[in-house]
């Protein structure tokens, strides 16, 4: 495994292939979870959809942790019914949550049966029920995805939600990527986490990774803006995804 430190706030791990990425990121998640449980008796995590869901569903169930101490939120969610193929919660419920002993009450899906603005407010209340009525929730870990345009969560380049500073969870009704209605954690919550983790595999991610990790674009792409104020930022990449990075050879 090669370690590439591109900045003091970034820990970029380049691994041989997607299989090794899956193995290492799942081990890192469990290590972080067990340390949080030992320290604070709970592990708060936000998960994302896409290829990350398969990585976690394949790798986590075989590892040892106290699942009763996990509190699972979603970094963003498409505002669609649970039986819609686009529903991230249902993907996790079928492929991960069905394999591990975690109670339904400790998993927090979006409510697709109310208007999206109300759903964002309701999700904020779910966060408050776990974190308390604090200035900002402090997640132990946010597992983030990145799209080919550099978006993360449902925070898209050039969208007004990039500048949201008051809400913990925001609604979006004009997503440039379908479906148009979603809810998403906002940047104040993301930047307050103890650890943010990106996972990217495959040569199709090489160009956008170069822009995010080594570019100096203004304004910065959403994924490039993720820099926890006092927490860690980790990237797990395979060699094809990292192929255009100058800092990796």
Automatic annotation (TrEMBL):
Substrates-to-products reaction catalysed: 6-phospho-D-glucono-1,5-lactone + H2O = 6-phospho-D-gluconate + H(+)
Q: Keywords on this record? A: Hydrolase
Q: Which GO terms describe its molecular function?
A: 6-phosphogluconolactonase activity
EC id: 3.1.1.31
Q: Does the keyword Hydrolase apply?
A: yes
Q: Which Gene3D superfamilies match?
A: 3.40.50.1360
Q: Where is the Glucosamine/galactosamine-6-phosphate isomerase domain?
A: 17-235
EC top class named in words: hydrolase
Physiological role: Hydrolysis of 6-phosphogluconolactone to 6-phosphogluconate.
Family assignment? Answer: Belongs to the glucosamine/galactosamine-6-phosphate isomerase family. 6-phosphogluconolactonase subfamily.
Q: Report what the protein is called.
A: 6-phosphogluconolactonase
Q: Which organism is it from?
A: Ridgeia piscesae (Tubeworm)
């Amino acid at each position: 495994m090669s370690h590439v430190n591109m900045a003091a706030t970034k820990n970029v791990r380049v691994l041989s292939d997607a299989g090794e990425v899956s193995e290492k990121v799942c081990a890192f998640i469990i290590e972080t979870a067990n340390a949080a449980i030992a320290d604070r008796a709970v592990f708060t995590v936000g998960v994302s959809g896409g290829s990350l869901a398969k990585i976690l569903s394949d790798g986590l169930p075989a590892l040892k942790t106290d699942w009763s101490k996990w509190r699972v939120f979603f970094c963003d969610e498409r505002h669609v019914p649970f039986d819609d193929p686009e529903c991230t919660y249902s993907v996790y419920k079928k492929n991960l949550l069905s394999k591990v002993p975690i109670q339904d009450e400790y998993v927090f899906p979006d409510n697709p049966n109310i208007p999206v603005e109300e759903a964002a407010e309701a999700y904020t209340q779910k966060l408050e029920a776990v974190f308390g009525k604090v200035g900002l929730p402090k997640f132990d870990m946010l597992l983030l995805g990145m799209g080919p345009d550099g978006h993360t969560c449902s925070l898209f380049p050039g969208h007004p939600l990039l500048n949201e500073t008051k809400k913990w969870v925001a609604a979006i009704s004009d997503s440039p990527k379908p479906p148009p209605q979603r809810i998403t954690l906002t940047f104040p919550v993301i930047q307050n986490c103890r650890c943010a983790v990106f996972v990217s595999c495959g040569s199709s991610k090489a160009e956008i990774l170069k822009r995010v990790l080594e570019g100096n674009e203004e304004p910065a792409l959403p994924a490039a803006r993720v820099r926890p104020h006092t927490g860690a930022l980790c990237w797990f990449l395979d060699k094809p995804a990292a192929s255009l990075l100058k800092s990796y050879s």
